[in-house]
Sequence to fold (404 residues):
Amino acid sequence: MELTQSAKLADVLYDVRGPALTRAHELEQAGHRILKLNIGNPAPFGFEAPPELLEDMIANLPIAQGYSDSKGLLSARRAIVQYAEQKSLPSVDVDDVYLGNGVSELIVMAMQALLDNGDEVLVPAPDYPLWTAAVSLSGGRAVHYRCDESNDWAPDLDHLRSLVTPRTKAIVVINPNNPTGAVYDRPVLEGIAEIARENGLLLCSDEIYDKILYDDAVHVSTAAVAPDVLCLTFNGLSKAYRVAGFRSGWMIVSGPKAHARSYIEGLDLLANMRLCANVPSQHVIQAALGGKQSIRDLVIPTGRLYEQTMRTWELLNAMPGVSCVRPRGALYCFPRLDPEVHRVQDDYQLILDLLEQEQVLVVQGTGFNWPSPDHFRIVTLPRVEDLENALGRIGSFLTRRLAD
Ligand code: PLP
Fold:
């Protein structure tokens, strides 16, 4: 009998590492050099971790051989509580903190513990697609609320409100946003919190880019504007501390918990079932949060990440029929290809053609649950010379396509 994948996977998609990446690997094996601008993984682009993280990992290896508590080491959770206080999260205790193998594991856990078949979660469009995938895998239905490109990609609160049904369980906020680079102002977060409050919904706020901010952007935690709403805040070391390979993330439960005892017991059960997060990586959380925040040197106007992101943004906007909202945070640009000019019918085919013809790999906008085939996402981690090279090739590809 043929072994088929479970029906649970029918709606589960993760195109950041999808079939186009498999094709890129094939091309590499055939001797091509591919510029991979598809994954937000800082280390391969020469963004080194703060040295104290490596020193702490090495120094603690001898005492990191056993499992830890399921929720994680107390020293790490204490450091996270202190960070939560700095970000004005309401009354967080060490018991409210769960460490995970990256935020990814915790997102799946949070959805698995929450959803019955057919329950709905309001997820932004575009989104970081793990959220939609985790909802589907858990038997739920991701219902996408629009973010408005003409309003710096802020969530459309009227649309969000209109989507609430009796089956809605939670609202997902991704701020700073992947893929758009938007950073939400306080009134937007207050509006989202109000919708959650009125409808008794859980708020899930993915804040993994909260320290990667450009220009005058200021990050406000969703939980800080919603002290009376149950909120899960997600963060970790993968981006601002450049150690995505350490798989180190955390989740903080805040707000009123009396009505959510059963859900929290579900989270505890799932945390127990996976035993614990990678222990050597847990040892570096305290050093990361307590040490020099070297990410700041990278995001100031003379910093490498700032220069690369803004150069990418500029070059995209200089292409005919391409426009891009200036990112205020994170590691990406999410340009629009004017449908009147570029007439893209299938954005997956577009990025495959780009890969074959120009050896540049980006991710199609529909891979982020954007409903129309008129965007793609580009990672701004490579050196400026490499980005200029990649954007030159994207420009030639689009120009050639227009001439066809
Ligand atoms: N959330 C967002 C918005 C992301 O962009 C990413 C990774 O790209 C993750 C979560 C996953 O992070 P982690 O490495 O902690 O699993």
User: Anything to note?
Assistant: The domain at 51-290 is CATH 3.40.640.10 (Aspartate Aminotransferase; domain 2). The pocket of pyridoxal-5'-phosphate is lined by residues 40, 102-104, 128, 174, 178, 206, 208, 236, 238, 244, 249 (CB under 6 Å). DSSP finds 16 helices and 15 strands in the chain. The first strand starts at residue 35 and ends at 36.
